[in-house]
## 1
Amino acid sequence: MRIIAIMNHKGGVGKTTTTLNLGHALAAAGKKVTLIDMDPQGHLTISCGNSANKEPGLDQLLMQQTTTENIVRDVKPKLSLISAGPKLAEFEQQKGDSSLALRLRNGIKEYAQGQDFVLIDCPPSSGLLVINSLFAATEVLVPVTGDYLALLGLSRLLGIFKHIEKAMQHSLPLQFVLTRFDGRRKLARGIRTKMLTHFPGQVLATFIRESVALAESPGFQKSIFEYQPRGHGAEDYKALAQDLIKKRMMK
Amino acid sequence: MRIIAIMNHKGGVGKTTTTLNLGHALAAAGKKVTLIDMDPQGHLTISCGNSANKEPGLDQLLMQQTTTENIVRDVKPKLSLISAGPKLAEFEQQKGDSSLALRLRNGIKEYAQGQDFVLIDCPPSSGLLVINSLFAATEVLVPVTGDYLALLGLSRLLGIFKHIEKAMQHSLPLQFVLTRFDGRRKLARGIRTKMLTHFPGQVLATFIRESVALAESPGFQKSIFEYQPRGHGAEDYKALAQDLIKKRMMK
Ligand SMILES: Nc1ncnc2c1ncn2[C@@H]1O[C@H](COP(=O)(O)OP(=O)(O)OP(=O)(O)O)[C@@H](O)[C@H]1O
Ligand SMILES: Nc1ncnc2c1ncn2[C@@H]1O[C@H](COP(=O)(O)OP(=O)(O)OP(=O)(O)O)[C@@H](O)[C@H]1O
Ligand SMILES: [Mg+2]
Ligand SMILES: [Mg+2]
């Protein structure tokens, strides 16, 4: 049972694209997978075909007003989704005791036992929703794009991370995936070298190449495997799923 | 005196890249410009050369513990910056009365009178920091990238926007700029058509092309005009500054 928070407070680095396509690749490889949409914007939910994101979902679970079984939906064979729901932003606005940080962990504890992988799509922030995701997770996956501003955010992210590990009193394995990678750009190759220098053994072996089909498929409410099964996007996410299962790292 | 909130809750659409380079282009065109870094991640601040973002900045102004004059710094000729400061995330966590939403407006009211343009770089969220930016602004500029998930966010953004306009009891002109535009992609051209259909007369004439120099320049703490003054990035932002000054829209 691996519960993976897919997080990075930097915007637009491919968290949602990775959650959807890595999730579908793991399910296609025979694993039981559930995706959780932690982003009030509900892009994962919409990309999975729930275009209005109006029915109660994760928002109600975090408010302790329903159970996981009531809100989880099958979206593809072996792939389920807990939608964001319309009131997720309101949950994040709450102030108060630190028990609010454990709502997701407690809400999915039993359900997760029956899953091989649970992937949590995080919003680009470091507030209560991301804190819930980190406390519920058994490991973290950080998508990183090949540019300077993406790298900048990492030291701050690690700071937040250490803070959570201390509070949890157990370690939370951290791994990275290079996304939207354009190998022709010197900048991207430079970022890759920096990542391998600072985080040896922590960068997954496959990098996800920039590929317009990955940007197009949500518009058809399809994963890359349904939209363009023979393209680079499908090839890369299929390989990434194997890296994750076998813990295959970049050298 | 035009105070422009550069906002979009979608991540990675070029808010920071636009604030820095449009700001520098306006200053080079002879305008008095101040940039405000509203993002706790401080990427604009760091891109301007303040690599630690450790000194008090906007965070102190919003907490009413200093004045604008104390924290504003010149970064280039005619271009000043109010840095984010280390405690901006803490300000966003506060709960309480609606007077918190007017802190930026009140804090910069006098100072802004002496400026031609004030550009506010917003974080990818819809919380207290973005609300402050909208209440302080006289107009809004929304960068939009040429892909489906960016378009999805717009209807929700407009919802938030209408809400603020109602509370402010005056209209807040809204305009869009297409960023990271790759004209060879059918998806991007389709998004451009949709934008012109839904928002006629509201899309600025120049679109900013995808150009790796725009991603590289922050790594050298330079704007595009210092890094690659003859490239597409500089050309596009220079033209965008003229569009903004002359209110030149895309047909
Ligand atoms: N490998 C890729 N090739 C081409 N486009 C991509 C790729 N990965 C992501 N994109 C596109 O880039 C944009 C940003 O990706 P995505 O929304 O997945 O990032 P995110 O980190 O979830 O963003 P946010 O911080 O707003 O939640 C989307 O429009 C997406 O379709
Ligand atoms: N026109 C462009 N061409 C190439 N790269 C670009 C362009 N515009 C922005 N980028 C790069 O894309 C990434 C996202 O841009 P940027 O950080 O400005 O977006 P943002 O909307 O401010 O993101 P966030 O939501 O995280 O604040 C950055 O690494 C930036 O350097
Ligand atoms: Mg996302
Ligand atoms: Mg930014």
## 2
Amino acid sequence: MGKTISLVNQKGGVGKTTTVINLGASLAYYEQKCLIVDMDPQANATSGLGLSNIYPSVYDILVKEANPREVIRSTDTENLKIMASDISLVGAEVELVQTKGRETQLKRKIMSLKSDYDFILIDAPPSLGLLTVNTLVASDSVLIPIQAEFYAMEGLGKLLHTIRSIQRELNSRLTIEGVLLTMYDTRLNLSHEVTEEVRKYFGEKVYNVIIPRNVKLAEAPSYGKHIFAYDNRSRGALTYKELAKEVMERNGKT
Amino acid sequence: MGKTISLVNQKGGVGKTTTVINLGASLAYYEQKCLIVDMDPQANATSGLGLSNIYPSVYDILVKEANPREVIRSTDTENLKIMASDISLVGAEVELVQTKGRETQLKRKIMSLKSDYDFILIDAPPSLGLLTVNTLVASDSVLIPIQAEFYAMEGLGKLLHTIRSIQRELNSRLTIEGVLLTMYDTRLNLSHEVTEEVRKYFGEKVYNVIIPRNVKLAEAPSYGKHIFAYDNRSRGALTYKELAKEVMERNGKT
Ligand SMILES: Nc1ncnc2c1ncn2[C@@H]1O[C@H](COP(=O)(O)OP(=O)(O)OP(=O)(O)O)[C@@H](O)[C@H]1O
Ligand SMILES: Nc1ncnc2c1ncn2[C@@H]1O[C@H](COP(=O)(O)OP(=O)(O)OP(=O)(O)O)[C@@H](O)[C@H]1O
Ligand SMILES: [Mg+2]
Ligand SMILES: [Mg+2]
């Protein structure tokens, strides 16, 4: 049975999409069947893997009753598929508000896919609105990327509050998969201080692997490639491989 | 009459809040009366200026009919005030959907304030939802911060599309105030390439001033201070002073 992990943090630009793409690709290289679901209207996970002109997309599953299997696309990487997104997803937030069972739309649509994959990774937009609520309700666990900076820490209280209320009312089995420090710069005190703080707050949940700031990770999406296809020897590639190993270990997959 | 400028870009983490705070503070030092309106439920502009436990907040103006003047707070900086936000603003997106005139709530509430200030700067959340639509409808112009990276460029088409439809249907006088390159790293080709691209796309609208990546800008909010109170000699402080001068020149204020 596939494990559904969502990448959530309402703070913008903390590495949600970069982690979905490169953790997904790395798990695929370790022979794990992986599906990425792009729940962000910005569709960065979609374009970061080189896909465009998407129809049907995640929007059509949530609002138009399209068949989920029709929206799954292959990527250049074996074992890695994606349910792509596009800007029409902006409309889903407003259209879903009037729908009965608006929080459980995504969950109902992807339940039948779980047995086809080892991991389903969902990329959420930078907000705590209805698309993110759908993502949390559809997930077994949530992986929280945190940029080692002040604002990223600030929002954690609100994020945990949202996760707890989802656990209470809509998805009692939701757990925290892990907390990942991203864009870490060894030269900055700030990175070090925030890391100490995060380990105090989350303890064991914090991954041993820390993703460094590495320009290759920022360059790769402009070529529509994940880091392993763009520069397999970069520090970015090596640390995302380490992360995949740690995620697999924590899930008894090695 | 105060000019209302909103900081909008649905891409997360591109420097919207950092620009609102530091451009606002710098304009205040140049004797411009400045009001910051925090329209982001993350309330980063509010906490970045050292404020907390906010009641009443922007939420109370939009949804509860509170008097806008009661929500304006002073900061440690003369000529700089803020209309603070808190997490309750997340609820406004859903609550406003059912309201008549839902797109013009903010505009109606702050119109009476324009004559008290030289500049009103509005910080928007990283989305194109109802809070951002309210922000664009209430504004004379929009300042677009762009991080010199791939995903930040990707979203520009959608942002311009949204601005054009607001101009057509809700606010015909909305213009582009300017386009600001942020977190520029001189050592990266990526920064240079994106900058060329942005200048080709936006021409004159791109500010001559480019904000460099500077750790002092990331440290300052953890002390609840803008850059001039935290480290007035840093490159971050100098470039935001330059930016304020350029914004004033473009608005005939020098
Ligand atoms: N470790 C890293 N080193 C350098 N750049 C990075 C790293 N991780 C991500 N980036 C870059 O930083 C920017 C933000 O990352 P990304 O888009 O993955 O964040 P996000 O949380 O998905 O953003 P949003 O909130 O807008 O969805 C992107 O331009 C990305 O390429
Ligand atoms: N020029 C800079 N140099 C270094 N760090 C910066 C700079 N500008 C902003 N930052 C840091 O980068 C992060 C993102 O900036 P900021 O929060 O201002 O972006 P934003 O667009 O407002 O994000 P959001 O989309 O979440 O509202 C913050 O941690 C901030 O402190
Ligand atoms: Mg993203
Ligand atoms: Mg912000």
